[in-house]
Amino acid sequence: MGFFVHETAVVDEGGVVGEGTRIWHFSHVQQGAQIGSNCVLGQNVFVADDVQIGTGVKIQNNVSVYSGTEIEDYVFLGPSCVLTNVTNPRAEVNRHELYERTRLRRGCSVGANATVVCGVEIGRYAFVAAGAVVVRDVPDYALIVGVPGKQVRWISRHGLPLKDPDLDGVLTCPESGLRYRETGAGELRCLDVSENEPLPEGMRNGEKYYDDIVHGERLK
Questions:
Q1: Residue partners of 3: CB distance under 8 A and separation at least 6
Q2: Domain range for 191
Q3: What is the DSSP annotation of 104-122?
Q4: How confident is the prediction along the chain (220 residues), in pLDDT tens digits per residue?
Q5: What is the DSSP letter of 218?
Q6: Are residues 13 and 88 in the same domain?
Q7: CA dist., res. 151 & res. 84, Å (int)
Q8: Residue 37 CA: distances (Å) to CA of 20, 145, 211, 218
Q9: Are residues 135 and 212 in the same domain?
């Protein structure tokens, strides 16, 4: 099967690209970068030499992924969002040895024109709204908006804001039927599918699974 690289794109020798990945117009993957399978890199995407990108990642047009960035599976980066790697850059001062690590955890989304200041971790399935500026770590499932970015509520794995919990403290995704509950540590966890496991195949296509969630049993 291999992978696809548009004739205007460049993958330097030593860059690793996984099966089924597509790299479009005018993009550049440097030597040493590692890109997983079934990813999509849109037009004018840059991936630096030590960047690691997981499986199923979608990077839209005009995004640069600089050294110090780690991107886990199924992350979405919207058009023209910005990832930095130095807190206090100066053209006159060389800080190549001081690149700060930024980690984008499984399934999170960063909206169009949002900025992620380096040195932070964006949690699993978190959602950074378009134009927001992230300056601190983001919890799993958090919906972040504004400048500076603030959490306004929880969001489901399917990307829908979760309404108030029921009498049992359960928040239910209106699209999928998956159930969530806050922990005592102020975190959110899914009751039906582990954060580290893939969704059931049908659920990826928008099918609802209300009838499969019985007495707290996990989805098969």
A1: 17, 18, 19, 20, 21, 22, 23
A2: 158-220
A3: E-TT-EE-TT-EE-SS-EE
A4: 699 999 999 999 999 999 999 999 999 999 999 999 999 999 999 999 999 999 999 999 999 999 999 999 999 999 999 999 999 999 899 887 789 999 999 999 999 999 999 999 999 999 999 999 999 999 999 999 999 999 999 999 999 999 999 999 999 999 889 999 999 888 999 999 999 998 887 787 766 654 454 334 544 4
A5: P
A6: yes
A7: 21
A8: 6, 31, 33, 28
A9: no
Q: What is the pTM of this model?
A: 0.92
Same domain, 76 and 145: yes
CB proximity list for 13: less than 8 A, separation 6 or greater: 31
Look up the CATH number of the domain holding residue 26: 2.160.10.10
Same domain, 83 and 189: no
State the DSSP H helix or E strand holding residue 182, giving kind and residue range, or none if neither. strand 179-182
Residue 98 is encoded by which pair of tokens? 């001081």
| Residue 15: exposure state from Cβ atoms within 10 A (0-12, 13-18, ≥19) | buried
